[in-house]
Amino acid sequence: MPKYVTAGIIGLILALGSQTAFAKIKKVNVVGVPDTIERIAVNNGKCAASFFCVKKKTGLWTYHGRVKFRKGEVTLLDGTVLTGQVVLLQRRQDWKFVKDMALIVPEGEEDAIYVGPGSAFLITQEHKKGGTNTYDAYGSIYLKRRVSGPMRLSYNPTAGTSRSLASFLPANAMKNLQTRVAGREVMAAIKDGKNLADVRDSGTASQAMVDVISSIEITEKEYLVYDEANDTTSAITKGNFKETMRNIFAACPEADSKDAKKYSKSYKKIDEAFEYINATCTFTS
Predict the structure, then answer these.
(1) Cβ atoms within 10 Å, residue 174
(2) Which end of the chain is more exposed for a tag (fewer CB within 10 A), N or C?
(3) 106 close to 113: Cβ distance less than 8 angstroms
(4) What CA–CA distances, in Å, run from 20 to 17, 85, 86, 125, 233?
(5) Judging by beta carbons within 10 Å of its beta carbon (0-12, 13-18, 19+), is residue 225 exposed, middle or buried?
(6) What are phi and psi of 254, to 5 degrees?
(7) What global pTM score does this model have?
(8) Which residues neighbour 275 within 8 Å (Cβ) at sequence distance 6 or greater?
(9) DSSP state of 146
(10) How far is residue 215 from each of residues 34, 170, 257, measured CA to CA in Å?
(11) Interatomic CA distance for residues 241 and 258, integer angstroms
(12) Which pLDDT belongs to residue 118?
């Protein structure tokens, strides 16, 4: 057989294999959904989010919605990492950076696993335009991260309330993990009729629980900054922005003084400021 024909066949096989591996998920059964899951007031209370509903006769949960699955990972509280196709959902059409739950179809599986409040502390998902979206656990929700690095930046979903910053699940949960293990035990438990909350509470997962945020309220856009070196979370508002930036740059001798002055002026360009800080500064505890 001519070489170019062989190469063409091989290329076709690889292309077909790639299409199969990353086939679009249009409708999927969902397992591991607890009986106590909160429902939304549509379709006679049969849904936990738009297009994520249970069939009354069979009790089978399915998802068939417009929000698409994309390649990603779910890191459970004990460090177990599930890799596959991920979709993040909202119970209400609220702020886009706030997600209530996730579904993941692990590699090699056909059904999706329900990932509810307090089941994971980190969820990542490939962005349709390239790059990765990261969501951190924050009480009973998953909060989209704006800037990653030693100084992590996110919106504050409880701005204007008295809720404690301690509700933000500290990243030292990850620091204390001994290993990042495969999800075989988790999959076995799910197939045995359990859900991630059962697995979490059974002793096989970390007992580090998060405070439940009963409501999401945003009166004015504020930000949360998580300092990985010191394991602290602080809020940045328009009122304390300049002072906060001065303090950060004072601890960063690597920063150019002109750049520090520039990035300390504009609250609207806070993302750019923290991208610069993470690329320039060396922070130690």
Answers:
(1) 15
(2) N
(3) yes
(4) 5, 13, 16, 19, 43
(5) buried
(6) -75, -20
(7) 0.74
(8) 147, 149
(9) E
(10) 21, 20, 42
(11) 17
(12) 81
Residues 6+ apart with CB under 8 A from 196: 32, 76, 113, 114, 115, 116, 119, 120, 186, 190
Helix (H) / strand (E) containing 215: none
Cβ–Cβ under 8 Å, residues 99 and 89:
yes
Across the chain, which has 285 residues, the per-10-residue mean pLDDT values are 44 41 77 93 89 93 93 88 94 82 94 92 89 87 90 82 51 43 70 76 42 41 85 86 94 95 93 96 82
Give me the amino acid identity at 31: V
Q: What is the pLDDT of residue 228?
A: 85
> What is the identity of the amino acid at 283?
F
Rg of the chain's alpha carbons, rounded to an integer?
22
Strand locations in the chain, DSSP E?
A: 28-31, 47-49, 52-54, 61-63, 70-76, 81-89, 98-99, 101-106, 112-115, 120-126, 132-138, 141-147, 151-155, 223-227, 232-236
Q: Please, are residues 226 and 150 in contact by the beta-carbon 8 Å criterion?
A: no
How far apart CA 218 and CA 157 sit, in angstroms, is 6
Type of residue numbered 273: A
> For position 157, what pLDDT does the model report?
78
Q: At residue 28, what is the residue type?
A: V
Query: 């998802």: which residue's tokens?
Result: 63
Q: Is 30 exposed, middle or buried (0-12, 13-18, 19+ CB in 10 A)?
A: buried
CA angle 174, 180, 181 (to 5 degrees): 145
